[in-house]
């Protein structure tokens, strides 16, 4: 980092959010350095590092963020992903029922491998002339007064000093000083967040729900001899599959190699109780193998009923289950998510770690980048324009703008767990889905392409070729009938808080209409009964005989 004419930014974390932030700043003339604690994934050491393979779902919010920074990245990600048009619900007998996300416009969410997504956007960032990447470098300490960030001391270092935000020591070698912006994109256990909270009053909450996740796998299906394909999908690749079992659930997302990444979400106590292979076997057979047909049954096999446990391979499932780690499900919230006077800001999980049940963790983090870019643009801040006071004002505004939206999505993500593991089987849930569909036909919301176009047309003119949008949520208040899922997943022009407000209004309206109809029916029955009794017109004098 050497050009004194440019603003300097240090981005901590080379995940998708950190890399997109770096690209957004660099495209607007900033000089950016990314610090990443892991080794270079392209190196031999990096290739040997264990990686999480749980799939990510990228939807319209994430796509809008990518388009606002690097439009051609959108095509890259779409090519690397598989579109999922809806949920495939597997009931207790393993019969399947498709529930489309958007029956009107056909909008989809996209399943993408976490390592593939991360490496693609990291490669793009590393190739930018204004971005440098430092691997195996973690934050040890931040001196906000002098704008200096120190690396964490390597294990066993003799030059280690003091205690760092990460719990170890820090070293002078490799420090960076004089930066204008320090971005914490270092995940749920963010060291940047800890260092910010040392010097600034903040409201911080951390909740670990009493459920865990366990990763499993459905291997590719057999080859297709007619087409010559080496493997096929065993179940529909156009759906996010859910096995709701009230207290727990299993989900599956498709991969390009025709396999499915599967995740079991269940109470920690229930998983701990499956301490032996035979206990685990009984659990999976009970919950994921259909009941055996009776030998006297003459009906043809139901094509919607599939023995998913057999497709997964019973012994392989047990091998994976017994060996897999039990992942925690944590909710983290911090307010404010910026430290304006110190030039610090938290993006992604560092500022708002959520449970994964709305598929918005990645999308919300990428949206942070888009919103921050729009606010910087509104203050005329680029790598070569805008004062320190302008940047302070922009960071303060960013935290205020995101506050209600982040609170809303943390709430929605947790509540959607109940929907996925239980309510999707409820007739009332299906009735509400049909009602939303009918009302959306009568009062149709805009399509996703139109929304993305409106975001593009609201961009502020800047000197760069990829100007950020000036207004991150041009829709304002939603006017037409739109389901909550549609607003959250397919409406990047609508903030999460507005989506929740609108859904509460729609829910109240439906409740009042139902109550009014119910009262009308009851009132009609009472009046009709009174009239019949009064007139005595019941089945040839039945009332008179009853009176006697």
Overview of the structural elements:
The chain is globular, with a radius of gyration of 27 Å. Residues 457-466 and 542-548 have low confidence and may be disordered. 40% of the residues are buried. It has helices spanning 16-27, 44-48, 60-69, 71-80, 114-126, 191-199, 268-272, 277-288, 308-312, 314-323, 361-378, 388-421, 427-442, 448-457, 484-490, 496-535, 542-547; strands at residues 8-12, 31-36, 56-58, 82-84, 86-90, 96-100, 109-112, 131-135, 139-143, 148-151, 176-177, 181-184, 203-218, 239-244, 249-254, 260-267, 327-335, 338-339, 344-346, 352-353. It is 41% helix and 19% strand. Helix 3 (60-69) crosses helix 4 and helix 4 (71-80) packs antiparallel against helix 5. Strands 6-5-14-15-16-13-17-20 form an 8-stranded mixed beta sheet, with helices on both faces. A 6-stranded mixed beta sheet has the order 8-2-1-12-19-18, sandwiched between helices. Strands 3-7-4 form a 3-stranded antiparallel beta sheet.
